[in-house]
Design goal:
Layout: H1 5-18, E1 22-25, H2 47-57, H3 63-74, H4 81-94, E2 96-101, E3 107-112, E4 125-129, E5 133-135, E6 138-140, E7 144-148, E8 151-158, H5 168-181, H6 183-187, E9 191-195, E10 200-203, H7 230-238, H8 241-250, E11 252-256, E12 263-267, H9 270-287, E13 316-322, H10 328-340, E14 349-354, H11 357-369, H12 371-374, E15 379-380, H13 384-391, E16 398-402, E17 424-429, E18 440-444, E19 450-454, H14 456-463, E20 468-473, H15 482-488, E21 491-495, H16 497-502, E22 509-513, H17 530-533, H18 537-542, H19 550-558, H20 561-581, E23 585-590, H21 593-606, E24 615-618, H22 627-630, H23 636-647, E25 655-658, E26 671-677, H24 682-689, E27 702-706, H25 711-723, E28 732-733, H26 734-751, H27 759-762, H28 765-780, H29 785-802, H30 807-827, H31 837-840, E29 853-854, E30 857-858, H32 861-864, H33 877-884, H34 889-907, H35 912-930, H36 936-954, H37 956-960, H38 964-973, H39 977-1002, H40 1011-1027, H41 1032-1055
Parallel strand pairs: 1-4, 8-9, 13-20, 13-21, 14-16, 14-17, 15-16, 17-20, 22-27, 22-28, 23-25, 23-26, 24-25, 26-27
Antiparallel strand pairs: 2-3, 4-7, 5-6, 7-8, 9-10, 11-12, 18-19, 29-30
Length: about 1050
């Protein structure tokens, strides 16, 4: 038995059944059926189930109010799919607001629950296959829809794993069609799933292709085994009923992009879901507010359990280490939303700590934009007095502050107690910084007196003696860092670089040193240490003393005009080569504001056209900085506008120079390259280079180019990372990418052995163009050449994009452009070459000779072969003669194969028998060709004959006096030659015409899936065949063929 889409569907339904879902068949629930649950195909909710659930879950609310709630759910639609989806999600999570009169005449306000999040069995669970939806002229049938209380919260689109053209991204493209054509079904959707039975990904209604992600665990304790079916893991891991309720309530959030204004729906990844649930339970334990017998005892990779020996009431919840770029801020948000609703915490107060104002603003802004999920609006403490007032409350609240506000007003004093409540949770962002220390030390004043300075962690403990502490970090805690562990405890969850890259939550980062290239002597620079990192951009403006120290000496050396000129020249050459191979943006990180400005000037001297839009400096400053700097010093609003533009991949602002700005908490996925000319180390270095690890379309990696000698600092960071249990390297050496590129280039050259492409560089345009079909011919002559070539060129292109600026890449650049041109021509011969918007707007660029382009577009395969572009539906004698005369016979065969497959694809939608007959002939011919049983010349003749026969078949309607649809039914009746002999053409034509008339009258929506409707049409067909004396012994087969033909045409009629 061959694998097909229905087998995948049946397997998925079996898994849902095992999870306790009832299984329904879409056509049985359709209008007019005995078990109908829909009044029309336009209804996307199962209203009866929803009404029953509302009644069951809200017995104390009057029926009129319950019906009003139902009406609000049914009328939730707005012109915007995303806005409607957000509006419904609020109703789902928080209940539908209603009002009704009390017996005393006053008005009561209440919320009608649509789902019981606390009791799984109180809800109605149903998975339905083949659920047809009709909206306007559009008729679509999603594969599986998951209903909870009659609400279509899950949608799964499946493809056949055995069909190489039917990938999960074909299923993704189908979802985009649903969004455009049957949007009401998506109004209520919580999660979208695409799968081919083997691979599976989940995303939201706003997610682009790259944000449909794998779900790797069922229970959260460990990854599913490598041989597991991804679809099974996803269905059992996400749709297990309690977990699905948890996901719906706590792990879906909507955020409006502050730059573009676009609304995005974010669903937690598996690492966030399980880490947050573990963190909440650890926080409850640490607070001592729950019976220890109620705490979960399970342990595993995502669930830390008692890993660090924490005891109930020890006030140390632990640390969540999720590598930069993997969604740490959202993990913090999901944690906050989850813990504020935990009954044991009794409406806790959350204090969110950062150590810098700009980070406080960023994180607060995100929580503020996503306040819906918190159920309250977060507040940012402007000063120490407001912080005291906000914390000194009975309960509740999400308060943002910097750690520096926990400093006593009088030096040497202890910080006053603000609250002794147990249900205060301190959430620290980047919980490894030196500020979190318990120690105290003596500080001498200038007048000779001294005072005791206490660590900030001591001050927070003094202020909040019974609070529980939890930390979130993107970089590991150093093994020697006793302070952080003393404050927070050990790891709750680790999501390292290796896992993030494997899940495509981030891309790998490559490292390239350009020091030797520029003959810069790193040894001459003063030794880098943590002292350099302490001087921030703001302090550089005000702290004149520090500028006289070795920082000042280093700054002078790094900012030497000759050195800046060298770097500027190298950077221009490097970036232009890199940008040619991969679309993206660059960030240049300098040591001081002066160097930022001087490097800008040097770059603009080399590339004056960059001065307008391409290149900008983003830094702070004051009026004291002088007139030449003022054009680079913007206010907060101007910097926000520049950030918006830089994040936009289409905006011409492509290169930014910074000192401190945008090195932490700044996400620009299209940023591919960082040029580092500033001393950085430890966590600061790790956070800075992570700016280039964000996922963006098909971006293969980020690149850090080093001009200052950061290699040792990176080695140290790697040692810390590995000691902490992290897997995967923070950066990979560029030499690795170069080795990979040269290896793939070697394989491609081996496949082109014996073929001379020197004219690609030195020849005339006509000679260059002629190389493309000749190159195709060379590849097509090899066993499985087309497939192997496509794979190696794709891998070579990705590797080349990583190291396009290297000497090695420059040396093979023209080869790569030639190989890509051949592959582009070959890929255009594929019948199934539709591209998604993401593929069209790929990050990796094709290197193409200008001689073979027209207005930026690669000339298509017909032009390259020297042929006019044919009208594919009319294979003319002239065109076929020109194909026969082509010099490159394998290319001619490929062209004919493409044209015939395309034509048969069209025919298969209208004429079943004709498409089957010709498809079988084509298959036999191609098998003989690919098995080398016939020569290339023979296959061309066979394909030309087939094309002529197909063309003649398309004109039979004129000769028979039948329409195309009538010809399709005629062919169904005439499929058996003995029927033609017994009845003759004329009688078969009469039967075909009557069948068309009667079938077209009888078909209804979904008739192909409803046995009762099929039975009626089967009887009608038999009656017509009997009426005209069709041979009884041939009737059963004829009825089957006619019904199959009717299915095809009814689909075409529905689209007409």
């Amino acid at each position: 038995m061959s694998l097909n889409e229905s087998i995948v569907e049946d397997a998925a339904l079996e898994w849902f059944g095992g999870l306790g879902y009832a299984i329904g068949h879409g056509p049985q629930l359709a209008p007019g059926e005995p078990l109908a649950e829909r009044a029309s195909f336009g209804e996307v909710l199962l209203v009866g189930r929803l009404r029953a659930a509302i009644r069951r879950l809200n017995p104390a609310i009057p029926e009129d109010a319950r019906e009003e709630a139902l009406r609000k759910v049914l009328r939730v639609g707005t012109p915007s799919l995303t806005q409607t989806n957000r509006a419904f999600h609020r109703l789902l999570r928080d209940g539908v607001p209603v009002e009704y009169p009390r017996p005393d005449g006053s008005i009561a306000g209440d919320h009608v629950r649509l789902v019981d999040f606390g009791v799984v069995r109180a809800n109605d669970w149903l998975a339905v296959n083949q659920f047809t939806v009709v909206e306007g002229q559009h008729n679509r049938r999603p594969d599986i829809v998951v209903f909870v209380n009659g609400l279509p919260l899950g949608l799964i689109e499946l493809k056949n794993a055995a069909d190489e053209d039917a990938t999960i991204w074909s299923a993704y493209a189908q979802l985009q069609t649903y969004k455009a054509e049957i949007a009401p079904l998506l109004h209520y959707n919580a999660a979208l799933v695409v799968s081919d039975g083997l691979q599976a990904r989940m995303g939201s209604v706003t997610a682009n292709q790259e944000w449909f992600k794998v779900w790797r665990t069922i229970d959260g304790q460990h990854d599913a085994p490598p041989q597991s079916l991804e679809l099974e893991v996803l269905v059992r891991g996400v749709f297990e009923r309690q977990r699905f309720l948890d996901l719906l309530q706590h792990f879906i959030v909507f955020e409006e992009d502050p730059d573009s204004g676009a609304l995005h729906k974010i669903i937690a990844g598996y690492h966030q879901f399980h880490a947050v649930n573990a963190a909440v339970e650890e926080t409850v334990r640490a607070s001592g507010m729950a019976d220890s017998k109620l705490l979960r005892q399970d342990v595993g990779h995502y669930w830390a359990g008692r890993m660090h020996g924490g005891q109930p009431g020890d006030r140390r919840a632990g640390v969540v280490w999720h590598t930069q770029g993997s969604g740490k801020s959202f993990s913090m948000l999901f944690f906050a939303a989850r813990v504020v609703r935990h009954p044991a915490m009794q409406n806790p107060t959350l204090v969110v700590l950062t150590d810098r104002n700009d980070l406080d603003d960023q994180l607060f802004g995100q929580f503020q934009r996503c306040a819906d999920i918190l159920g309250q609006m977060p507040v940012q403490a402007a000063d120490r007095e407001q912080l005291k007032a906000l914390i000194n409350r009975a309960s509740g609240g999400v308060i943002f502050t910097t750690i520096q506000k926990f400093v006593p007003e009088t030096k040497g004093n202890r910080f006053e107690q603000l609250s002794d409540r147990q249900n205060i949770i301190v959430i620290a962002d980047e919980a490894h910084r030196s500020q979190y220390e318990f120690g105290s030390h003596v500080v001498k004043r200038k007048d000779g007196t001294s005072y005791i300075a206490h660590g900030l962690a001591v001050n927070i403990r003094d202020a909040l003696p019974n609070a529980s502490f939890i930390g979130f970090t993107g970089t590991p805690i150093e093994k020697t860092d006793a302070n952080t562990k003393a404050v927070f405890g050990d790891y709750i969850s680790v999501y390292d670089i290796q896992r993030a890259v494997a899940d495509k939550a981030t891309v790998p980062i490559y490292y390239e040193s350009r020091i030797a290239k520029l003959a810069l002597n790193a040894a001459e620079l003063p030794k880098l240490d943590a002292e350099f990192e302490e001087i921030t951009e703001g302090e550089e403006q005000t702290s004149k003393e520090k500028l006289k120290t070795k920082w000042g000496a280093l700054e002078a050396m790094v900012g030497d005009p000759k050195r800046i000129a060298l770097i500027a020249a190298d950077l221009v050459a490097h970036w232009e080569k890199r940008f040619e191979a991969m679309n993206g943006k660059a960030m240049i990180v300098c040591m001081s504001r002066r160097i930022c400005v001087d490097l800008y000037d040097a770059l603009v001297d080399l590339r004056p056209e960059w001065a307008g839009e391409t290149l900008k400096v983003v830094m702070t400053g004051s009026a004291d900085d002088g007139p030449t700097w003022q054009k680079h010093i913007g206010n907060k609003t101007q910097r926000r506008e520049l950030a918006k533009r830089f994040k936009d991949s289409k905006d011409p602002f492509r290169i930014v120079i910074v000192r401190d700005m945008w090195l932490t908490g700044f996400d620009a996925p299209c940023l591919t390259t960082m040029y580092a000319d500033k001393p950085m180390m430890g966590h600061g270095l790790m956070q800075a280079i992570a700016r280039v690890n964000r996922v963006f379309r098909d971006k293969p990696s980020g690149l850090v180019v080093d001009y200052l000698g950061l290699g040792e600092a990176l080695k140290s960071a790697l040692a810390t990372y590995t000691e902490s249990g992290g897997k995967g390297a923070p950066t990979y050496e560029m030499a690795q990418a170069i080795r990979l590129m040269l290896e793939k280039h070697g394989i491609a050259c081996d496949m082109m052995h014996g073929f001379n492409w020197d004219k690609w560089i030195s020849g005339k345009p006509t000679e260059q163009l002629a190389l493309i079909p000749a190159g195709q011919e060379h590849i097509l002559e090899q066993d499985d050449g087309k497939k192997r070539w496509g794979q190696v060129v794709m891998e070579l292109s990705r590797a080349f994009a990583l190291c396009a600026a290297s000497d090695e890449a420059t040396g093979i650049r023209d080869d790569v452009s030639f190989f890509q041109a051949i592959q582009a021509a070959l890929s255009k011969q594929n019948s199934n070459n539709l591209k998604t918007p993401e593929q069209i707007e790929a990050a990796i660029r094709q290197l193409v000779s200008k001689a073979i382009t027209t207005e930026g577009q690669v000339i298509d395969v017909f032009t390259a072969a020297g042929l006019p572009r044919p009208d594919i539906s009319i294979l003319s004698e002239q065109f076929l003669a020109e194909v026969r005369g082509l010099k490159h016979k394998n290319v001619a065969a490929e062209l004919l194969e493409k044209l015939l497959k395309d034509e048969l694809k069209v025919r298969s939608r209208r004429n079943l028998v004709q498409a089957q007959v010709f498809s079988e002939k084509l298959k036999q011919t191609l098998n003989a060709y690919h098995n080398r049983a016939i020569s290339t010349m023979q296959v061309i003749e066979e394909l030309i004959k087939l094309a002529k026969d197909l063309d003649a078949a398309s004109k039979r309607g004129e000769a028979l006096g039948l329409t195309d649809d009538e010809v399709a039914f005629y062919d169904a009746l005439a499929a058996n030659q003995s029927a033609v002999i017994a009845m003759g053409d004329d009688k078969l034509k009469v039967i075909a015409a009557e069948l068309i008339t009667q079938v077209r009258k009888s078909v209804t929506i979904d008739w192909t899936l409803r046995e009762s409707a099929r039975a009626r049409i089967r009887v009608m067909v038999k009656r017509i065949l009997n009426k005209y004396g069709y041979p009884p012994d041939l009737q059963d087969e004829a009825v089957k063929t006619v019904l199959a033909q009717a299915e095809l045409l009814s689909a075409a009629w529905a689209e007409a």
